[in-house]
Amino acid sequence: MQEPLFKTISAEDFVKLDLDEVTLVDIREPEEKAIPGLPGSIDVPFSQIGSKIDLVPKGKPVYVYCKIGELSDVVAEVLGDRGYEAYSVKGGYNTIWYLLEGGY
User: Fold this and answer.
1) In sequence order, what are the beta bridge partners of 26?
2) Average pLDDT over residues 47-75
3) Model pLDDT, residue 5
4) If 0-12 CB within 10 Å is exposed, 13-18 middle and 19+ buried, where does residue 99 land?
5) Residue 31: which region, alpha, beta or left (left: phi > 0; alpha: psi -120 to 50)?
């Protein structure tokens, strides 16, 4: 069985990262953005990933997040297939935001 081309990271571990050392990709659709994304994130809505994937630079690990952590697997797999060191954030932005606001 082939290893997946991407890795996953929990939202709890994600919020401990030095975000200056990674590339963030926010794949939420505009209507899902009642809460703004993380500063420095590249905005590539899931529906436009095919035409905008080249906006994601190589050279640093790429962490992909969506609203709840499901679609990020798909995009992280595509990025991994293209040679990126890609991670999908489990729990998505809803969990990231909750943790950053002092939850859990």
Assistant:
1) 43, 65
2) 95
3) 84
4) middle
5) alpha
Question: Which DSSP string do the residues of the chain spell out, in sequence order?
Answer: -PPPSSEEEEHHHHTTS-GGGSEEEE---GGG-SS---TT-EE--GGGHHHHGGGS-SSS-EEEE-SSSSHHHHHHHHHHHTT--EEEEETHHHHHHHHHTT--
Mean pLDDT throughout 80-101? Answer: 94
* C-alpha Rg value of the chain to the nearest Å: 13
CA distance 73 to 40: 21
**pTM of this prediction?**
0.92
* Token pair of 19 as six digits: 């975000």
* Sheet containing strand 7-10, strands side by side: 7-10, 86-90, 62-65, 23-26, 42-43
Q: Which amino acid is at 25?
A: V
Split at pLDDT 50, 70, 90, the class of 49 is very high
